[in-house]
Amino acid sequence: MQDTERKEALKQLKQERKEAIKANAAVAKQQKKDLGRITERLAQGPATPLEVAQDLGMPPKEAMWYLAAMRKYGIVMEAAKSGDYFTYELVPQGPAAC
Amino acid sequence: MPNGDTQKFDSLVLGGGIAGLAAALDLADAGYRVAVVERDATIGGKMIRLSKVFPTLDCASCITTPKMAAAAHHPNVTLFTMCRLEGAQRKDGKLRARVTQMPRYVDPAKCIGCRQCEYECPVMVPDQEQGGFTARKAIYIPFSNAIPQLALIDRDHCMMCGKCSAVCPTGAVDQLQTEREFVIEADTMVLATGFELMTDFPARAYGAPGLGDNVISSLQMERLLAPHGPYMRALRPGDGKEPESIAFIQCAGSRDLQLGKPYCSRVCCMYAIKQAMLLSGALPLADLTIYYMDIRAFGKNYEQFYNNAKAMGVEFVKAKPIIAGNNPDGSVVLRYEDQEGGSGAVSREHDLVVLSLAMLPAFAPEEIVPVSAATDGFLKVPQPKLAPTLTEMEGVFTCGAAAGPKDIVDSIAEAGAAALGAAKYLAAQRGGRAA
Ligand SMILES: Cc1cc2nc3c(=O)[nH]c(=O)nc-3n(C[C@H](O)[C@H](O)[C@H](O)COP(=O)(O)OP(=O)(O)OC[C@H]3O[C@@H](n4cnc5c(N)ncnc54)[C@H](O)[C@@H]3O)c2cc1C
Ligand code: SF4
Ligand code: SF4
Fold this sequence. Notes:
The structure holds 2 protein chains of 2 kinds. Chain A is α+β, with helices and mostly antiparallel strands. In chain A, 62% of the residues lie in helices and 13% in strands. By secondary structure, chain B is an alpha/beta fold. In chain B, strand 17, helix 7 and strand 18 form a beta-alpha-beta unit.
């Protein structure tokens, strides 16, 4: 397929998938916002998933999910234990993307 | 590969789990050319997703990865991942299997598995390879020892932003890829399609979509115990607490016609004991309780394994509890009739509850392969005692959990028998000559 044909076909595909793309983009936008808020919170010091959840008004399960994901992609790391919970802190100058 | 291509092999193995891979390798070592057709993006089946395996407590990945690599590198084995079998019929003595290659939206010939796309992609999706407890991206490689190490796009979640294409060093991303159909022609086939865990247990048993954040499935517990698991330690998913009390409920959906399936899933007693033993190593102060109907420790060294767990302090309670509710602190309330202690109805709370869910067949052959399913839904084997790997179709064999719940030892033993059956059939076709 020529470059111009590919471009045209991609444009058409995007048009066909317009609704799904819109919905997925909305999810990604919310995720970006949540990640930003968690990063800001952790910039103030390490926190447990429960503390992150309480401070940001987020269900604890969701905070735990984000922290696990941020750990997987090299943004946070496990830190000291506080009672029955581990705390998480930002990786110094970790990769920007998640 | 253009649409309508025909590729010729001696044998087609359907399913690239441990049983399928073992059968494929036996046939390939005997000189036969084998096609392994796998519907998933990686071979390895359930075993590559386990932590350690009973009764030896070997690391599952350490013993599965070499088998996966051996199949990938064997000159007589060709792997077809993300493929759907549409139908297989014998015509003029040959089996003709119609297969659809699902699109990855990534060119397998160009992708080098660097994961730069995955880091760049802005959409996070619950990672089912990790029990849903962490995220992957809309473009991703399933896990670090997946074979093949190729990215794929999850179209349902992709927002077509083009970031993956922009960052890919080899220009592998191809959003325009489509399904492709091709034909595999072979003399024999081995059905090694394995099992799935029951997913609708909460709906069947409680009429509820779920049972709370801290009630998990046994496969999810395998991920919590795996060295590269979602948290890299055993924490409860509801809030990250290190659990002080963990319970296992056996026969969740099995041996219960009203709530699920009448048969025993065979491996759950042993894997629950295994998981409890691993947890007692990881969390030495935690209370571990297994609620059971009977303990079925049927294999070599299994009874000893069970006794070791008792000696390590794992508590065994003969009861079939119900999940009565969740407390605000995340603990789960169980209620049960104390069958041995005579205390009547008892309530107990645990930080985390694991359901040993029923094993169900992963493949319904109807209208795809002319063999039938038995009343339990698993593949029918007409001679279960004398020839447990023979199916109703000439030259078609089965092995592993495809024909019924089975552990790894039995799955591999059957794989050898199925491969031998297929090799004998092939030799007979060729006038008694081996490969
Ligand atoms: C929680 C848990 C823990 C366990 N722990 C242990 C243990 O410690 N020790 C032990 O011995 N056993 C254990 N088992 C049992 C073990 O998982 C099975 O014995 C083993 O996985 C069976 O292998 P299999 O290849 O038959 O099936 P599977 O592992 O299910 O593999 C089947 C493969 O076929 C593919 N497939 C299915 N349908 C199709 C189709 N239509 N087309 C193409 N491909 C298809 C699947 O994607 C999969 O890759 C455990 C099971 C569970 C649930
Ligand atoms: S698609 Fe490109 S960026 Fe992604 S893993 Fe493959 S080669 Fe790397
Ligand atoms: S195009 Fe899709 S897969 Fe690629 S980066 Fe964007 S959202 Fe992710």
